[in-house]
Amino acid sequence: MEIILLQDIASLGEKNDIVTVKTGYARNYLIPKGYAINATPTAKKMHKENIKQRAHKEAKLIQEAKEMAEKLHDLKVTIGAKTSSKGKIFGSVNTIQIAEKLNESGFDIDRKRISIKEDLIKEIGTYHANIKLHKEVNVTISFEIVAE
């Protein structure tokens, strides 16, 4: 069944994408929750017209995302964590802490757009995170975990 997404869904696609999913998933979950609509011929025509109108706005958003990516690429983020004498972190470092540090640096980035390349960060060191600024613009930043 073809549907038009009304918002970003991490495992499926971005807003305004036309995707094919199983009928039960669309009818029982996506459409009732308001995450998607059925891709009828009329809805596809309206969708196509909306995409044309948004093309100029989209180009501006991509340019802003590229400018932010250039600024973020050179940024070094330092996160303090409580550690044992052997350098192990009590708990772990996650995207919430990275988003808070980026907000302190003047970049308003949602934690859901940040993904850490390593599974769990349990030791002091330098790591990398990927930030999805736009569906076409991604940037990788490095962040350092230090003992408090």
Explain the overall architecture.
- With 148 residues, the chain is an alpha+beta fold.
- It folds into two domains: 2-61, Ribosomal Protein L9, domain 1; 69-147, Ribosomal Protein L9, domain 2, CATH 3.10.430.100.
- It has three helices and nine strands; from the N terminus they run ββαβαββαββββ.
- It has helices at residues 23-33, 41-73, 95-104; strands at residues 2-5, 18-20, 36-38, 76-81, 88-93, 114-116, 121-123, 125-134, 137-147.
- A four-stranded mixed β-sheet has the order 4-9-8-6. Strands 2-1-3 form a three-stranded antiparallel β-sheet. Strands 5-7 form a two-stranded antiparallel ribbon.
- It is elongated.
- The mean pLDDT is 89.
Proportion of residues in helical segments: 25-40%
Biggest beta sheet attributes: 4 strands, mixed
Structural class category: alpha+beta
Kindly give the count of domains. 2
Number of DSSP-assigned strands: 9
Q: What is the CATH architecture term of the largest domain?
A: Roll
Estimate the global geometry from the Cα principal axes: elongated
Compute the number of helices: 3
Straight-line distance between termini: 53 Å
